[in-house]
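RETRY 2/3 - previous attempt timed out on the joint model. Re-submitting the same 511-residue input unchanged.
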Amino acid sequence: MSAFFGPLDSDGRVPARQQTRVASFLISAHGALGRRFALALPLRLESAWQTELNAQFYNESEIVSLLLRATRWMPDLALGYLAAAWETAWFPAAADGIPDHALALAVDLATLAHAIHAGIRPAALLPVEANANDPFVMALRRVEFESGRLLQAQIIFLKGESLVPFRDAVSAALERRHAEVRKLWREILEGIDVSSDENGLKS
Amino acid sequence: MPFLSHGSYRIRYELDGPADAPAYVLVNGLTQYAELWTAYRDALVARRFRVATFDLLGQGESDKPALFISQDDQVAALHLLIQEVGDGPVFLSGISFGGLIALRYAVAHGGRLAGLVPMSCFAELPPQLFLLGNALRTGLILGGTSYLQDLLLPMNVSDQWLAPVLDKLDSVKRQGWLVNDVYALQNLMESFLDFQPLTPQLPSIGIPTMILNGEFDFLTPRALHETLRVQIPNSSLVIIPRAYHAFTLEKPALTADLLARFAEDVLAERWQGNKTVWIAPDEAGGDLVPFPTGYDHLRAVPVQGAIA
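RETRY 2/3 succeeded.
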């Protein structure tokens, strides 16, 4: 098992099987975020912070669109049950310890988005030999880079004044979401012979 | 690869060298990871020291708390590691952010240490450093780890170090980019949001302390090290010639030699701090020379002036 995608083909491209599995997972995760942001987005914005909801929705949509077009797809029979497991994991689950149900759901969405944007680094799995001009390689780099920016809204919200009284509940919910997403990501990678390598430095 | 447990978090560490030897514990800077001390490990073990290196919480292979990393937690993790090295003499050294954590440790647990070596370090955030820190954090947020590295490299190492690697900077940056995550680096940087100056507590550090400062350190210039020298009673300031903020990366042989000599002098009871100012040799093994009497070591031109 390798710490990186591969073996690359002669054009420096990631194998189609790995592209298919990874892109499917990312589309599922970012698609789920996009749907939840869309549901939270009012037709007419009434508060300044809702502009960020709009941005998050369209950025998630862009990630999904990009991966749909940049991936070399191939048939993968396992995707049916894998996708069912992923979609179940993205279900809303109001954060424990926050009495205001709407706020608890908002915290849940923010923690899920934080875990996906911060915890999944697909570009870090590209070997140095990967072809920088390949659309899938470029797409993974873009997804990781944009995730780092999208993450800022979640950080500002979760560290914000309104959640200071619930800091322990927020931290617990966030660590739980991170653990869930990390586990799914690790399983995906193991299924395509890539080690998430939690206990060893990549080189 | 061994791990320590701090609450629900794991801290990756490595111990090398004879178990009965005096220990050196080395603390990483902000964007670093334990492997960057490899040359120090080899040099210090060869001089019969035990060497402990580790990844801070939020770095490398240690756990990365998702939202908050307090500096108190870093000190607590360091305390666990120092307990792990045994009961013998312990020398603690850290660079930059790691130097600050080492200072905090010395304030809280100085009795456990035989000596302290803060390098490229600071105890307060004057306006220049505060604004630089803010700008670096914004750089991380907008451009990711790679852009933060792009900002830090030219600030922190010399032209001589950069020139041969200029056409392969991506490979120089790659390991740091791989093992460090944006959110975790951001959490480390945001641990300064409620930072209180350590200066009033520095006089409580009673142990021998050698402060190392690069001659051309732009990020944490001489004045910040001068605060340490003036406030820590048994200290001396050693200026590393032609060195920048990250001289531990650029001059490992010289720096490891200075660390070993400091510890050997302390153990042999030859060490005299006296708040003196020295100039390090250019190469390992050379003589340290006292800063010329009557000249102001805070200036970049040879101005005669009073020295505190």
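Residues 3-123+194-290 of chain B form a domain with the Rossmann fold fold (CATH 3.40.50.1820). Closing ticket.
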